[in-house]
Design brief:
Structural class: alpha/beta
Shape: globular
Distance between the termini: 11 Å
Largest sheet: 7 strands, mixed
Helix content: 25-40%
Radius of gyration: 16 Å
Number of strands: 7
Oligomer: single chain
Order of helices and strands: EHEHEHEHEHEEH
């Protein structure tokens, strides 16, 4: 049984996609042990509680400095003895010591076809704004392993999504979530769980 920690900062739509995929058998041999957010008001924590999953807030705001926060985050994850960490819209830079300890055991979903529109500053709507500004005809999402860089780890899965006439960043974001993110993130977890 693959034991998973899901780290999320906001509403938790990718978390919901993972929970739904476990419930409907798209993801097998997997259990979410804990959902951790850096934001006490994140709706993702409610989603987890509603499923009987431990929901924890570890916020940099609650610690004197980033180093102490990093240690607290690592300690909280270690507490659950997880095999895989899933970053599902977690807007905090992952501490180097976490990346080292969980090498090739942290995956991230990014709302573009890496290497396009990724790296520092590219998150949330900013990715879709940049894609529209550049005039690309195809965008999508990428699941990749997390390494010491920003969106630079080995790619696991990608799925393309067409940009349509009249798209706003919000419309494009929703289409990328529905047609790519919510499909390939569960698929990647299932692949890892059944390797």
């Amino acid at each position: 049984m693959l034991k998973v920690a899901v780290l999320v900062s906001g509403g938790g739509t990718n978390l919901q996609a993972i929970m739904d995929a476990i419930d409907n058998g798209t993801i097998t041999n997997t259990e979410i042990k804990v959902v951790i957010s850096n934001n006490a008001g994140a709706y993702a924590l409610e989603r987890a509680k509603n499923k009987g999953i431990d929901a924890v807030c570890v916020s940099p705001k609650d610690y004197e400095n980033r180093e102490i926060f990093n240690d607290a985050l690592l300690a909280k994850i270690d507490e659950y003895g997880v095999d895989l960490i899933v970053l599902a819209g977690f807007l905090v830079k992952i501490p180097e010591k976490l990346v080292e300890k969980y090498e090739r055991r942290i995956i991230n979903i990014h709302p573009s076809l890496i290497p396009s529109f990724c790296g520092v500053g590219y998150y949330g709507l900013k990715v879709h704004e940049a894609a529209l500004e550049r005039g690309v005809k195809v965008t999508g999402a990428t699941v990749h392993y997390v390494d010491a860089g920003m969106d630079t780890g080995p790619i696991i899965l990608q799925k393309a999504v067409y940009v349509e006439e009249g798209d706003t960043p919000e419309i494009l974001q929703r289409r990328v979530m529905e047609q790519a993110e919510w499909q390939i993130l569960p698929q990647a977890i299932n692949m890892i769980a059944n390797m």
